[in-house]
Amino acid sequence: MSSSYYTRLSENQETKVPNYGLKVTLNHTYPENRSQGYVPGIRQAWPLLPQALRYTFYYILDYIRKKPVVMDFIYPLRSKRIYGVPIGGIGCGTIGRGYRGEFCRFQMQPGVYEYNTVDANQFMVTIKDSHQETIFHSLLSTFQKKSLNTWESLIDGSKCFYTGLYPRSWTEYDLSKFGVLLTCRQISPIIPHNYKDSSLPCTIFVWDIQNIGHEERTVTIAFTFKNGVGNKHKDRASTCSSTDFVFGEAEGVILSHTIGTTPCSYILSARANPDVKISKCLYFDPNSPGSAPWFQLKNNGCFDTRSKEVEHIVGEMACGIATKALVRPGRPVTCEMSLVWDMPVVHFPKKLKEYSRYYTKHFGKENAGVRIVHYAFENYPRWEREIYKWQSEVLEDRDLPDWYKSALFNETYYVSDGGSIWVTLDKGETQNLPQTDPRLEFGKFALLEGHEYKMYNSYDVHFYGSFVFVVNWPHLQFVVQYDMRDAIFNEIPDKRKSYDGEEFERKKSNTIPHDMGEPGEEPFTLINCYPTHDVSHWKDLNSKFVLQVFRDAFTGCLDDDSVQYLRDMYEACCVLMHRSENFDTDGDGLIENSGNGDQTYDTWFMTGPSAYCCGLWLAALFAMTKIAEVLHKPEDKRRFQMLLTKGKLAFEQKLWNGRYYNFDSSTDEGCSIMADQLCGHWYLRSCGFAHEVFPQGHVRSTLKTIFENNVLSFCNGKMGAVNGFKNGAVDKFTVQSVEAWTGVTYALAATMIQEGMWDEGFLTAGGMYKSMTDRFGLAFETPEGLYATDFYRAIGYMRPLSIWSMHLAIKSFEKNKRKQ
User: Fold this and answer.
1) Which of 118, 109, 112, 111 is nearest to 261 (CA)?
2) From CA 407, how far away is CA 803, in angstroms rounded?
């Protein structure tokens, strides 16, 4: 391709640096360094003391067994405050990138995070003048490395700028002192409604090189990478080899190795074009000073390739690739590089079965890496067009605040970097499925509750986060729902002891599981790994299944596929609703909470009818009347309508206090103002319904009360909505009542926008997002909870994906505004 093509490309609206996203210099430091060191008060800790003692016992037991814990409260992670846009597609493993240029936070094995920054994984630049004298040679990262002491970073971080707008990033290097400007554009194939490309384990790096001086410059961009994930124990146990390849226009190095016992290949490549010369390094020792590759590049502007293959090295090894180009004044040159990782088959510690990653459906299991390289180089311009089209609707909307334009897309990082696993079905699994089952085409998909809360598809949290899939990848939401539907009828009679001291069956039939298992056992098979309570008694999960079915079908047009989906889910919905009816102990049409951890706020105990669980229950009853109507089941509709009518009356009588709905029916905690009390209404509004269940006046009064108390009276509106507020102050009843949950704040903001409270909604969510990204440095590892000062909890969490419900609310608001 000609340099004129690249000039046009760099000027293209689709590829230029956007005005929005995470924007920092490469020497940036965040002003506030928070931790997970919150210590609960005596009143908060005392009710949880028995659980804490049992947890400690089981923690020690798991340590002896060498089994990873599901939730590590002893050694919680602390944010490194370094992260930029991660690389890779959905369900295929991810590699984190720091905004300073580092490669960090590896998740190659499903659900297993390695928080390591690897010094050998680097980009470098060499600049030679017109006499072929080296005038500049440096790493292109400002991260302080600990090894390879020959390698130096000489760039001025204050003159280099990073912009991260998921799934792309731009790093601009001002090397004008040497007559050169560099821009690296990083592109991962995260594309709505494109399932094939979104599953690919790859990223593209496009280097635009400009000569702003008056003399020629020869510029080399080198890319090095080592085996493994930065875990010394795993990396040193690996058997490695490397070979070079040429495939179409791509040239590069294949680094074959193992991660644990799983074979994996890293493929570094560059795209050949007339302006660029490619050289390769098949081996260097990442534990050495790094002199050989460093001085080859510095002196010659290329690697000295003496062999085509390096065989069977036990331990660590690294390789590299370099592009060298003559750059004339005023004639930009572009170098295209890629990183692909190919780990086609994965398994979990129990090794009950092997899983083939979804991308193997299109690229096979043998030597897929080089085919993905070729495909990525051919198709990344289309990816960028589709990403730009997806984002421009939001970025160009002048009515939306700037922070939201960054937040909507950057919070989406979690769909790939949430420990996601996406696999195909084997022949045995497909034999008994009807042709209408989406898993035949789209396989199985799961996402961790959090980087630290290692449970797949935790359903109480997925209820919030699933909006990202409904809007962008609806078939992934469908396969989650079909798996969850089947799991309802499954039984695992194994006895377990919970942290609250009860013995219970791991999975009872005709109950919905909390999760689809953990990466430390065998997800999809050994479901319900949540260890704290017996989830068969939870009061929110049943309603949440029904509401997700309702939302999935009613958000768009109710077409034949949606009706079939409702038919497929209907029996499960009826079973769960019947089970929930048994939670109504006094026949008033409302379900009662038990006074223990029986819903997603599992340390904030609810007693009797509660605003949260009863609101979800009433919304689910309304949903069932509509589903029964679509499926022509008049008797069922009548029964659900009778329950709804009775329940609505009791809900208003027992919980409405004239300003908002009481937290629950207890005497000590009942008057608490819960930020999430309109959760059921939020879902109905997201489906296009208005005030059929919850009176408009009561909804508006509740939102106003929450805004004045939980938002404005909590950190002056700069930290989102605190979960509980009572008697003019933050409710200190429990740890969770003093937290502001990021995902709940986004959901609350969406509810406000749904009700026409546009300014209040954006202020509620905006204060929180700006604090996280501008002050705390929590970009691309959004936590579950924030405290008023000093602390956060559970970094890297699924629930904040609920921000996509704000997107739906905005579209609905604007649609109604146009009608008026």
Assistant:
1) 109
2) 8
| Backbone phi, psi, residue 569, to 5° | -95, -10
Look at the block and give the residue holding tokens 């700069």: 718
pLDDT at 248: 94
pLDDT at position 11: 55
Query: Residue 580 pLDDT more than 90?
Result: yes
pLDDT digits (tens, 9 = 90+) for 259-276: 999 999 999 999 999 999
3-state secondary structure 92-112: CCEEEEECCCCEEEEECCCCC
- Please give the average per-residue pLDDT across 589-598, as a whole number: 97
Structure tokens, 319: 């390789």
Number of residues assigned to the chain: 820
Task: Give the pLDDT mean for 334-357.
Answer: 97
pLDDT tops 50 at residue 457? yes
pLDDT at 819 over 70: no
Rounded to whole angstroms, the Cα distance separating 670 from 323 reads 67
Tell me whether strands 114-117 and 103-107 are parallel, antiparallel or unpaired.
antiparallel
Q: Which residues contact 348 (CB under 8 A, 6 or more apart)?
A: 110, 519, 520, 521, 522, 523
- % of the chain residues with pLDDT over 90: 94
Helix locations, 396-538, DSSP H: 402-410, 427-430, 439-442, 459-465, 467-472, 474-488
Q: Which two tokens stand for residue 651?
A: 């809900």
Q: What are phi and psi of 348, to 5 degrees?
A: -110, 170
- Identity of the residue numbered 90: I
The mean predicted confidence, pLDDT, of the chain is: 96
Query: How far is the C-alpha of 754 from the C-alpha of 721, rounded, in Å?
Result: 17
Cis peptide before 167 (omega within 30 of 0): yes
Contact 306, 314 (CB under 8 A): no
Report the alpha-carbon distance of residue 270 to residue 335 in Å, rounded. Answer: 7
- Please tell me the distance from the alpha carbon of residue 196 to that of residue 192, in angstroms, as a whole number: 11
Of the candidates 29, 23, 30, 19, the one whose C-alpha atom is nearest the C-alpha of residue 162 is 23
pLDDT digits (tens, 9 = 90+) for 6-53: 344 445 899 999 999 999 999 999 999 999 999 999 999 998 999 999
| DSSP label of 661 | B
pLDDT score, position 814: 81
Q: What was the pLDDT predicted at 815? A: 77
Residues 519-540 as b/e (b if ≥16 CB within 10 A, e otherwise) read: bbbbbbebbbbbbbbbbbbbbb
Which distant-in-sequence residues (6+ apart) come within 8 Å of 444 by Cβ? 355, 421, 422, 423, 424, 425, 479, 483, 524
- pLDDT reported for residue 311: 80
Dist CA 801 CA 470 (whole Å): 11
Q: State the pLDDT confidence band at 312, using cuts at 50, 70 and 90.
A: confident
Cα(344)–Cα(372) distance, integer angstroms: 12
Q: What does the alpha-carbon distance between residue 664 and residue 678 come to, in Å, rounded to a whole number? A: 13
pTM above 0.70, yes or no: yes
The SS3 of residue 779 is coil
3-state secondary structure 375-424: HHHHHHHHHHHHHHHHHHHHHCCCCCCHHHHHHHHHHHHHHCCCCCEEEC
Q: CB atoms < 10 A from the CB of 378, how many?
A: 13
Residue 650's SS3 state is helix
Q: How many CB atoms lie within 10 A of CB 123?
A: 21
- Per 3-state DSSP, the chain is made up of helix, strand and coil in percentages (nearest 5) of 35, 25, 40
Closest CA to 191 of 32, 354, 409, 403: 409
Separation of first and last alpha carbons in the chain? 52
Burial of 231 (0-12, 13-18, 19+ CB in 10 A): middle
Tell me the domains of the chain and their CATH numbers: 83-387 (2.70.98)
SS3 of residue 134 by DSSP: strand
